[in-house]
Amino acid sequence: MLGPVLGVLLLGAALWVLRRELGEHSLREVLATLQALPPSRLLLSLLATALGYAALSGQDLLALVSLRVRFSAGKALLAGFEGFAFANNLPLAMVTGGAVRARFYSGSTLSKTEITDLVLFNTATYSLGLLAATGIAFTLEPAAVPGLLGLSLASTRPLGVLALGLVALFLFWSGRGGPTLRVGKRTLRPTPIAMSLARLGISLLDWIFSGLALYVLLPHANAFHFAGFLGVFMLGQIAGLLAQLPGGIGVFEAVLLSLLGRASGIPAVLGALLAYRVIYFLLPLLIAAVVLAVHEVRRIRSHPGG
Fold it and tell me: Which of 16, 85, 194, 259 could share a disulfide with 284, CB 3.0–4.6 Å?
């Protein structure tokens, strides 16, 4: 019960923050800053988005290797893209992503249990990269978030070291090959150290590119180091994940506006966030929806009786 309650509370807080931050600015100001975005920055954001989704899709390849399932690399990458594009935009991300993947893996040697294991593998990989990106950002730029929030806390380095320590503990567990862990009805076994390092690397790339896709859209982006911005970005992402809202919508924007709005200007930051929402979330969803529709039409034509 705590999950939905926390989500409602965070959404309420986000709406209050957005109302407060936008109260003194008109829609015309926001649209003007949105229109003023240079085409070169939009192209860079699109490139970072493409690389980010490529890293996300690569997680399916690693999962199939770990499950020892033979499957076309191209089809696996496509299934991964489809799963993440829908999961990033719709409620119940794990269920949604798993259901979409099942459409692309159907007819293969993967059982329903293996598809579930694949989704769980990806979720763990995704979380590993989140810990690593947060740890790196909080450690390299420990004063960025406290300075923007005006906190008495001088440094986020202890939190960064804690996050990196958890990553190191996971790698140590993998390197030793155990012990196995029991979580509910599932037994968790470590992947080999080479696979764990590959999971860490590909997920970390995903988080870096997703942050970069927004960073290049922000005004005066060169005024602060990317590592400092990444700490703010990860804070917004974590808040969005806790809220259990599709893509952290509303909550993520509220965190970024609160932290960056005064330094770069509320209309300019909101314009960048709107462009980012379209480029990183809605555009991939649109492409994924078209691909899924084509895929389903082909299935119907190839199996007209079922």
Answer: 85
Sign of the C-alpha dihedral computed for residues 268, 273, 274 and 279 taken in this order: positive
Number of separate helices (H) and strands (E) present in the chain: 13, 2
181 φ, ψ (degrees, to nearest 5): -120, 145
Centre a 10 Å sphere on the Cβ of residue 194 and count the other Cβ atoms it contains. 9
Is-contact 107 101, C-beta < 8 A?
A: no
pLDDT digits (tens, 9 = 90+) for 11-40: 555 455 455 545 555 556 666 777 778 889
Tell me: cis bond preceding 179? Omega within 30 of 0 counts: yes
Buried b or exposed e, range 100-117, using 16+ CB within 10 angstroms: bbbebbeebebeeebbbb
Spatial distance between the Cα atoms of 297 and 306, rounded to a whole number of angstroms: 12
Question: What single-letter amino acid sits at 153?
Answer: L
* Structure-block tokens of residue 248: 């952290």
Contact (CB, 8 A) for 238 and 134: yes
pLDDT tens digits, one per residue of 76-131: 888 888 888 888 887 767 777 777 887 777 766 677 777 778 888 888 999 999 99
Tell me what the pLDDT averaged over the chain comes to: 80
181 pairs with which residues across the strands? Answer: 188
User: What DSSP line would sit under 81-149, residue for residue?
Assistant: HHHHHHHTTSSSHHHHHHHHHHHHHTTSS--HHHHHHHHHHHHHHHHHHHHHHHHHHHHHSTTHHHHHH
The DSSP 8-state label assigned to residue 224 in this structure reads S
Q: Which two tokens stand for residue 148?
A: 């923007």
